[in-house]
Amino acid sequence: MQIPWISILILLPLATGMVLLALPAGKLKLIRWLSLATALVTFVISVLLFVTYDKVAAGYQFIEKMDWLPVMGISYHVGVDGISVALELMAGIIVLSGVLVTWQTSDRAREYFSFLMFLASSVFGVFASLDLFQLFFFFELAVFPKYLMIVMWGSPKTREYGGMKLTLYLFLGSVVALVGVLAVYFQSGLHTFNLLELEQAGFGLEFQRLWFPFIFIGFGILGGLFPFHSWAPDGHVAAPTAVSMLLAGVEMKVGAFAALRAGLMLLPDGMRFWAPLVIILATINVVYGAFIAMIQTDFKYVIGFSSVSHMGLVFIGFATLTPEGLTGAGLQMFSHGIMTALFFAIVGMVYDRAHTRSLSELGGLYKYMPIAMFGFVVGGLVSMGMPGFSGFVAEIPIYIGAWKTFPASAIIAAISIVVTAAYILLVVRKVFFGETPEAIKPGLTDMTLRDKIVVIGLSLLMIAIGIVPSILTPTIQAGVSHIITLLGGA
Amino acid sequence: MAFFRSEMFLAIIPELGMLVLAGLLLTLSLLKNQRVNCCLGRVTAIGSALVAVLAFIFSMPGTDPTFLWGGMLRLDSAGFLFRILFLVGVSLTAIFAENEEVIRTRPEFYAMLVFSAIGMSFMASAGDLIMLFLAIEIASIPLYVLAGVKFRNEKSVEAGIKYFLFGSLASSIMVFGFSILYGMGGTTQINEIHAAVVAANVPIAGLVGTVLLILAGFTFKISAVPFHWWAPDVYEGAPTPVSGFLSTASKAAGFAIMLRLMSILFSAEHAFIWQLLIAVIAFASMFGGNLVAISQKNFKRLLAYSSIAQAGYILVGVAAGTEFGYTAVVYYLMVYLLTNLMLFAVVGWVEKAAGSADLSSFAGLHKRSPITALAILIGLLSLGGIPPFGGFFAKLLVFGAAIDSNLAWLAIIGIVNSVISLYYYLRVLKMMYVDEPAGEVALKSPSLEFKIVLIVCITGIIVFGVILAPWFNIATLAAGGI
Question: In 3D, which of A328, A278, A317, A285 has the Cα closest to residue A402?
Fold first, then answer.
């Protein structure tokens, strides 16, 4: 019998989360090691899936299926294609990094790690869902861990506002999409939530035009699409470090990924019809996000808005409907996930030592945390799209795709490259160079070994992809080729 | 003897069983023995369980509805399921009521509870308007008494009187509607009314007017707009287990008769009229309940407004008017019964332990009493429609049914309301898990029994949300009986 890798990947963190809740709160060591062990196992499985995924055969692999509610065509149905296997890998990496960088959490650690595990299970589940009902099931599963983690461990000033805003926006987005998905379900007449069957259903043009925005914009809210992006910076800033990493790194991709799966792939004609609008919104995302990031005075907000800016590129990639654009979008999801997780990890490390995130109160940290600076500069170069880093590999195809279809958006969005360079360099100068203010000096110590491993590991990964894109690109392309067939193109 | 067949008696064995149980409870309560009084809740629960077993053995309906007692009763799967639902409601309420100090001194509480359940049971299987009206009154009158059972407490008395006045007003409007219906069609047999009305060529406006009158009684029962005003005051003033019972079993009974009556009065071409009527009520109830709930300071009042909104969601399924919609309604009611009964029980427990049901006394509950905080967390998330709890699938079904019946706008209103409701549910969760406790001391641990029942309820809510197939099939079966 084949080992159900994906089920283990999804259910193991869920089980660990429940076991953790049942442990006595005092067993700090056990709690940490159990979480780390789980994160390691999921990481290894995600690597395994990525490596053994057959890029030549493409299509959906590692499929497992079990009846759930046959009368309504609901089943437990998991499997991955080229894009989702890459995203699973990204999620695996970020969950592991998240556990490592917040290892020291001692305030209600049991609940903290337990909720983190629930969150991990939720994202693994969404990426692997081949059943729309199941996709929602796993997505909504994250609602209460998300909210409680932000309000319990978030930054005291804004956590209530940020947490509530984030949770309600994400819930609103997902339920709007749910209405669209239910419409698809009933319209298809197939009585199934099976994505593979719904893909082939071939919906009428009118229907697609009417319902596409519900699904795409609904999920787009989760991906930070303008003008529904404001939850992202507020929520990410309010959240504790590991949650920021997971939310910005993975959850925003969950939104974009679901928009792709349920929006673009089920209703391709709807996407064609609405592409100009999506392009306009996404271009605003890219440029506006970058400009707003530049004027932030809070270290974490800079990163929060840069996420909004970069996610715009993913949506531009979708809307081009070209192989280049879609491949770029897939790569960008991966690259940005890793990059933003790295950024948030570093922000967390800086904050833990300096106890401030205000750019004007930071300075000269390179003397104390050289590795953090290294990581931040690498992340910054990725963010600017510098050749030799993963950001370049991801953004170039998107711009090529955009140039082919909506040249104006390519030109306007390109402004963001300059602006991104400006705010990244500005932050590097303010935080890592110059004089260290006396006020923050007492707390400054070097990073722990765990932190160093995370920062170096994530940085090297992005450089590796930048230098040898073939680690990632063929897998993504395997996923994109299937989408192109659905679009009716060659 | 043609009219005296044994199946007539077999069919009402559950009701007869409940009658015996109620008589037994009444006798026991006359003993005025403190020790007997303390375990009456358990007697009620075990008795109800026995009645349920009897029902399964003797009164299982066939696939087609049968009419008994001269058409007064209609034995079908829907009536059967609701009967079981009421019995579960009675058992849980009785167990939770044992914790209430006041009820220990008013042991007739349990007998009243069972009498009311008999009425509900007949409501769900009434085949005739007269029977229906009688059943509603049998169900309601004990509830008026129960709401005011703490007769030395001003709020409870106010609750009892308010509930009585509202209830009798709504009942009289409804019975007026019934009489017009009889006048138009010349029959009181529910399943013959439609044909009679068509044969008599009743103008559609007249029919709509009559339905409006009847809806007064129904919306009162299910606490939907516009007859919802009693709910917050009564839920707050009545003993907590009674509030729980009112918001679940009593509401389910209201929905049972609504499903029976509304769907058959209009012919297919005019179905959109009653659908629209129900949709408007659903719309108003969802917004009315949720928007007012946001500003509540008392947990019971918050639950009251939330239950008005919940009635709105369930009505979305009624408005769909399809068998799928009715399935959704039944599924929703099953989940909702369990969830709300548990929530009211926990709120009642905290009220007793912490001294008040104000939201402020729930602050930091996580530290003071983890298990009750967990129960509230799960209950509220289920009401909010979050998986893996039953409320998620129930909501998905009602909204799905609406979309299936071209009522997508109503589904969208529904999801907007889900978001609003999540806001105030999450705020309560935040209070319990993040805020500092109102009092330093840890609350005394709940009794073992209470814990067990809570865990059973929690498990049930999760089972409803994860293992979908059996419940969905049961709900489909019941909906098929309507």
Answer: A317
Q: For an interface test with A, give the residue of B286, B323, B378, B386 to mutate (most A CBs within 10 A).
A: B386
* Interchain CB contact of B455 with A (< 8 Å): no
Query: How many Cα atoms sit within 13 Å of B219 on the Cβ side?
Result: 24
Q: Which domain holds residue A45?
A: 5-486
CB A178 to CB B469 under 8 A?
A: no
Task: Report whether B13 contacts B54 (CB < 8 A).
Answer: yes
Instruction: Give yes or no for B462 touching A (CB within 8 A).
Output: no
Count Cβ atoms within 10 A of the Cβ of residue B202 and give its class: 0-12 exposed, 13-18 middle, 19 or more buried.
Answer: middle
The ipTM assigned to this model is: 0.89
DSSP E strand stretches across B256-339: none
Angle at B438 between CA B432 and CA B440, to 5 degrees: 110
How far is Cα A380 from Cα A385, in angstroms, rounded to an integer? 9
For the ranges A102-106, B110-114, B228-232, which has the lowest average pLDDT? A102-106
User: Is residue A106 a contact partner of residue B339, using CB atoms and an 8 Å limit?
Assistant: no
Residue B4: enclosing H or E segment and its boundaries?
none
Interchain proximity A148–B429, CB inside 8 Å: yes
d(CA A297, CA A360): 7
Contact check, Cβ <8 Å, A186/B400: yes
Place of tokens 């994906």: A6
Report the residue of A107, A126, A140 to disrupt the B interface, i.e. the one with the largest count of B CBs within 10 Å.
A140
Query: In angstroms, rounded to a whole number, what is the distance separating the alpha carbons of residues B206 and B211?
Result: 9
pLDDT > 70: percent of chain B: 98
What CA–CA distance (Å, rounded) separates A208 from A194?
18
Q: Is the peptide bond before B226 cis (omega within 30 degrees of 0)?
A: yes
Q: pLDDT value at position B378?
A: 93
Round to whole Å and give the CA distance between A457 and A472.
16
Per-residue tokens: A246: 């997971």
Domains in chain A, number:
1
What is each CA distance from A65 to A61, A74, A134, B54, in whole angstroms? 12, 10, 12, 40
